[in-house]
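Thread: quick sanity check before group meeting

JM: Hey all, I'm pulling together slides for Thursday and realized we never actually wrote out the predicted structure for the chain we discussed last week. Dropping the sequence here so it's in one place. If anyone has concerns about the input, flag it before I start.
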Amino acid sequence: MVLYHLSTTYQLLYCIVHRLARHEHEEAGLLMVEYICPEGQRADFVKRLKDTGWFSFVRLVPEKQFKLKRGRSLKENSTEKQIETVIRRVCGCVKNWLGLDLSTFSRIYIGSDQWSFGIYCLYNRIPHVYIEDASGMLSQRERYMAITKEISLTNYVISEYLHGAGHSDTEIARLCDTSNFLPGFTDEKAEDFSIYRALRDEIPHRVPEILRFYGAEPVQLPADKPVCMFMTQYIKSMTVRDLDVQEQLTTLLLDYFADNYQVVIKPHPKDQWLNYRRICPEAAILPGSVNAELIPFLVSRPVDRVLTASSTSVGGMAPTARDVFSFPLEIETNWEALHEGYAAAVVLRVIAEQIGPLALREDGDFPLGLCNFLREEAVPTAPGGKPVLLTKDPMRFAAHKGWRVLLPEKGHSSGAPARARAKITVRVHPDKTSLLRGLSFALYLGAPDGEPAVPQPEEERVLSHSHAVIHMTTALYNDRPLWPGKRE
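JM (edit): ok, ran it. Output follows.
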């Protein structure tokens, strides 16, 4: 008999599929952190799971009760004695509640080992298999620990103390989807398992019953547009916990990256506050309970594009989509920088139309999302292309002799730099119903001295979901400034 422990909806599907694919002829038990669903739904949820016959027993771990009994909360500066005291109390709670001889299980699989059962196994050095919390998340431990810290500082402190979350030597293996690891990441204990590949290749006959359990109905999509799947996020796991911010971020991403697509919105299971029907009336909206990994078996057409701010669930769709657009965590606090990324991509596109493929050189970081905007604007780049410098430093811009673009610094434009050939002014005009604010900034274009003409970007784009318009206009410097305030 095998035993699974989990705390998230991703891990639940992962364990269901793993149990059916790899332990089909062996009994299995299931422990779930009670917070996996709202209190009023728990009894029905457990009953439905039991009725499937997939698990010999299903039990909810009473974390709220354990929290009351463990005593003090911990902080990052808590002493070793304080941490040990809390851990021993947690372990006592688990031991009294569990009523299982863990030595009788052939394998123990633990997802989210920062919760009580995981703490018990780590502290008592019980060998087990670690389960990552999202597709490829094993390769993003720093991000995962930041999320853990936001949810429970005490759990975070204990996890770091016990070297949990994929770092413990009591882990005999680490169950994960290696295809979604960050580039260059390896783990000698990684044991590859993909929900999508298992459903497609190992147990396709089980797909209908799994879809029935999740209440997933087939979705018929029109055939006249490519399909964009937008993955939302749980606001409590985001850096800024503000619904207006989440809505602005959502509408900007849809406007910049889902224009002329049939949008399908996959809400996070706990994303219950935003009205996506109002935000995007033309979208097909899936139930939040349906995991991303099930979507390829649910929609009538292949998904062309997966779009998200920074959802960890995007990896579940990656194997089946033509392209995936996601962003660094910075987007959660600096979403307005998307305008700069778009403007920079437009400028680079018109440069490429004049001189051919580009070889971009950044002086510092690229604008937020620029790589995605370059793909969206179809800007041709090649290692042997014409060099173009992107910089936020006016002095570096002035000293460079080739093609160059001066970007705004944190949304603020400097004055005209030396040797600029053109000023591109960008203005965002929201209407009265928009949550966006009006913005204005400038980019500056420089070219080799012998270049007779420079491109003149002129763009107007309607941001329909954001209820705004973005304008780009160009002014040429006929008498090129040598230094600010001076002319040739």
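AS: nice. The first strand starts at residue 2 and ends at 6. The two ends are 83 Å apart (CA to CA).
JM: adding both to the slides.
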